[in-house]
Every structure is written in structure tokens, then in C-alpha cells.
């Protein structure tokens, strides 16, 4: 996706919007080093000072990370995600505890608010998840399923809060799936389909309670302790 040239007014705001679009569209995934300052200035049709201010603003919000002598990297996909990343750091237990709060209520609300289209999507994502054999593909499919459950709640605030945890959720799934890779979410999806809020909440929280109980006290998202050898 080519960066659009800036308008005469609002140069910094325009640059921020264009950089954010490249991140949210997936063109620059989390962990990617973005183009250099001269390259961005040329693509946007602005001066380097404008680019520098835009990068500084996105770094302050936690979306970008400036590494002196190395470059600027994408740290998160949104301000919410960046803020949560700073608050949670790499503490796996705390990420799972926050996931439990959001996912249990998300499942309960989904059972009450889900549409037939939601049920079809959830079952398709469950089948896709269960068909994966590679660790990376399974983790991605599992994270997609959990997010779809929250989306089925149709609670926009809860959805945006959970969206802010996207990177942390994906990392936690990648690690914990090596601890217990055979968690069956069929009952969770069927409880939502049956509009049984209590059962959906129990299913959503039960496996996370088990994972939290198995964690070493200092487990973190950067640990290689749980990764497949």
C-alpha cells in the first residue's frame, strides 16, 4: 500500500494517519522495522522534521519503538495495545488473568447476543483451529477463535478492549498451547450456540484457570521454557 502525499495543512497529523494505516492494515506487522526517516519523508512528500514528529508521537503512544542505532520498529497495532503492553510487560500470568476477565464476560454476552452468522463463523473457526498441526498455525487459529467469541458479544467497548490485547493474546496462546495443546473448545462454542450464558462462562474460564494454576511464578511472554524444542 503506497503512502499518500500530504496535504499542505496538518502535515504531522497526516503523517501520523498514514503511518498508523500502514500498521493497522498489516503492511508493517508488529516487530517490523519501518522505513528510514528519509524514505518516509520522500514517500509522504514532507520534510524530515515532520516525519520525526509523527514517529515521536506514535512512539509516545506505544505503537512504535525507536531503537537508537538500529531503527524504528512496530511495537503494537493501536494505542490501547501499546498501553496494555507497557502495563502488562511480559508477565504471562497477568496477561492470562486479564484474558480471563474479558473472555468469560465475552462468552456470557455472546451466548445472549450471538446471531446465526456468529454461530456459523465460530464453528468454522473451531474446525480450522482443530485442523492445524503446526504450532504457529494452531496458535494463530486459536487466537482468531477467541477473538471471534468476544466479537459475538456485540459489545463494542469490550471488543475494543480485547482488540488492544491482540499481540499479548497471540503470544500467550503460542506459549500456553505447548503446555496443553489439546484444549477442546467444542463445549464453549456449543454453549454459545445454545444461548447458555452460565455454561459459556464456565467453559471460557475453566481452561484459563487450569493454565494459570500450572504456571511457574515468574513465567513471562519472552520465556522459551514452554516452547517446543
Compose a concise summary of this entry.
With 229 residues, this protein is mainly alpha-helical. It is built from eleven helices and two strands. It is elongated, with a radius of gyration of 20 Å.
What does this structure look like?
With 229 residues, this protein is mostly helical. It has eleven helices and two strands, in the order H-H-H-E-E-H-H-H-H-H-H-H-H. It has helices at 11-24, 37-44, 48-60, 79-88, 92-113, 116-130, 135-151, 156-163, 166-176, 186-193, 197-214; strands at 64-67, 71-74. A two-stranded antiparallel sheet has the order 1-2. A hairpin with a 3-residue loop joins strand 1 (64-67) and strand 2. Helix 6 (116-130) runs antiparallel to helix 7. The longest helix has 22 residues, at 92-113. It is elongated and about 55 Å long. The model is unreliable at 224-229 (pLDDT under 50).
- The total count of strands amounts to 2
Helix content: 55-70%
Strand order of the largest sheet: 1-2
Shape: elongated
Give the structural class: mainly alpha
The radius of gyration over CA amounts to 20 Å
Q: Give the helices and strands as they follow along the chain.
A: HHHEEHHHHHHHH
Largest sheet: 2 strands, antiparallel
Question: What is the typical, i.e. mean, pLDDT?
Answer: 85
As residue ranges, the low-confidence spans are 224-229
Termini separation comes to 37 Å
Amino acid at each position: 500500500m503506497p503512502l499518500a502525499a500530504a496535504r499542505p495543512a496538518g502535515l504531522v497529523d497526516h503523517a501520523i494517519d498514514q503511518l498508523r494505516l500502514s500498521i493497522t492494515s498489516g503492511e508493517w506487522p508488529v516487530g517490523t522495522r519501518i522505513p528510514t526517516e528519509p524514505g518516509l519523508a520522500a514517500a509522504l512528500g514532507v520534510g524530515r522534521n515532520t516525519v520525526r514528529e509523527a514517529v515521536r508521537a506514535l512512539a509516545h503512544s506505544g505503537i512504535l519503538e525507536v531503537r537508537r542505532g538500529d531503527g524504528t520498529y512496530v511495537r503494537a497495532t493501536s494505542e490501547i495495545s501499546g498501553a496494555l503492553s507497557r502495563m502488562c510487560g511480559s508477565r504471562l500470568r497477568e496477561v492470562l488473568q486479564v484474558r480471563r476477565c474479558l473472555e468469560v464476560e465475552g462468552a456470557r454476552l455472546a451466548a445472549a447476543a450471538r446471531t446465526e452468522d456468529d454461530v456459523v463463523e465460530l464453528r468454522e473457526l473451531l474446525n480450522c483451529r482443530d485442523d492445524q498441526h503446526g504450532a504457529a498455525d494452531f496458535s494463530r487459529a486459536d487466537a482468531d477463535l477467541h477473538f471471534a467469541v468476544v466479537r459475538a458479544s456485540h459489545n463494542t467497548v469490550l471488543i475494543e478492549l480485547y482488540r488492544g490485547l491482540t499481540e499479548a493474546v497471540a503470544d500467550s496462546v503460542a506459549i500456553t498451547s505447548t503446555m496443553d495443546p489439546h484444549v477442546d473448545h467444542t463445549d464453549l462454542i456449543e454453549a454459545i450456540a445454545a444461548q447458555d450464558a452460565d455454561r459459556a462462562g464456565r467453559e471460557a474460564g475453566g481452561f484459563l484457570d487450569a493454565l494459570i494454576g500450572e504456571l511457574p511464578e515468574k513465567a513471562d511472554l519472552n520465556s522459551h521454557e514452554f516452547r517446543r524444542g
